[in-house]
Design brief:
mainly alpha, Alpha-Beta Plaits, two-stranded antiparallel sheet, 2 strands, globular
Amino acid sequence: MARSKSKDSRRKTAINNKWAWKWSFLVLVMIFAIVFRLTGLSGWLTLGPAIAFALMGIGIMIFISRKQKKMVHCVAFCPIGTVVNFARFISPFRMSIESSCTGCMQCIPSCPYDALNIEDIKSGKPGLTCTLCGDCVTTCEVNAIRYHFFRLSPTASRNLYLFITISLHILGLGLARM
């Protein structure tokens, strides 16, 4: 029983220094891209650092994300994830935690992106690393976590968000196969 308790508490701990990691990796990728461009390196010469970066990401997925039971590779490593986190400010979709929240904290371990902690729940909205995946919505027994899109109901807002997201993924996969 003590073992499962330690696993559960590990899932509830926040990722340390996630913003420092996010910005460091984003800046590092940008510096490498600029240096590669300015030095005129061919695609073949840039392949080595790209493979090393990819292997580092896979290592983070295998050894850290699985242990933490969180998407550490997305939250702290992926530079695209950092850009997406800030692009959400122009998205009309929002997520909120309503006053009907009982504070049971069952949503915290369900969030793979480390966007929910006690402070976020008290503030009424998920943290900046929220991707609107909705994993927390299904774990909330009182339906206090809700999507918002203008004047649509929370259910309609969530369905619209899922429809748009799935459609964009399918379109992206279709274009990639061309």
